[in-house]
Amino acid sequence: MSEGMMEPYGGPISFFRLPYAENAAGLDIAVMGIPFDLATTGRSGARMGPRAIREMSLTMAEFPWGVWPWDYHFNDKWKVADLGDVMGFTAYPDRMFNLVEEHADTVLAAGSALLTLGGDHSVTYPLLKAHAKKHGPLALIHFDAHSDTWESDDLNHGTMFYHAIKEGIILPEHSIQMGMRTPNPETMGMLVIDGNECLKTTAEALAKRIRERVGNQPAYLTFDIDFLDPAYAPATGTPVVGGPNVAYAREVLKLLAGLNIVGGDQVEVAPHYEGPGQITALAGATIAADILYLIGESKST
Ligand SMILES: [Mn+2]
């Protein structure tokens, strides 16, 4: 069995074959899933995202050399484990925000950083709160087709950054949003680089703008899979045409190494809308790995 467990199609499923851990004691980085999608405004299904991302991560988990083009394996530098999923809000969606914040608080209090797999994008709100308690107000590095700054008293996956800025969790003057392809009447002081501008900007130039914007601030990186064109990521709740491709996104991410990225998430993979190739979850798993590397690189500097 042990040899077969290394094959992408066999064995138990965890993120990149990481061991499961009960808690974050002794970890450098913990991975956590949030199977929640009750704050979606479009198509539901992101509750199945963490499992699909973990499954497609196995296509890359057999290589002991790491995830190309990173030239080392994250396990060689940092102690990383999969904590499984935050549960306990089934039929009680109002409990999600508190539960996620409590779990994130516990991980961060143990001295570990946190990479989270969504779930719809509303899960980022309690994650930001927990990280801001630990690190102070955060620079937001936000990849998405939507700004998620809609003015509303309600908390859903399109309003949480409006709330986060109003509450002082995010530093708008150090924050940047990229890939927007929907009306965005209010930037709330953040730098917004819309989808068309991304397509005209090289990965190097975009990464430079992010680095300049963020500076030395503690930063939280959130990647909504719908940043990508639906050709590359069709399985998501609110797809929008005309976005960048996966290679471009990954090149930008790689060039952010060294920024003080204290945490991050990959959200909105909704695998029910996949074709049989599962390309959205594959993109999600790869980008989640990139974020894991960035968090690790930040801890190492
Ligand atoms: Mn979005």
TrEMBL record:
Keyword Secreted included in the entry's annotation: no
InterPro entries in UniProt: Agmatinase-rel (IPR005925), Ureohydrolase (IPR006035), Ureohydrolase_dom_sf (IPR023696), Ureohydrolase_Mn_BS (IPR020855)
Keywords noted in UniProt: Hydrolase, Metal-binding
Molecular function terms, GO-annotated: agmatinase activity
Enzyme class at the top of the EC tree: hydrolase
Enzyme Commission numbers on file: 3.5.3.11
Domain of life: Bacteria
UniProt entry tagged with the keyword Hydrolase: yes
Family to which the UniProt record says this protein belongs: Belongs to the arginase family. Agmatinase subfamily.
Protein name: Agmatinase
Source organism of the structure: Kordiimonas pumila
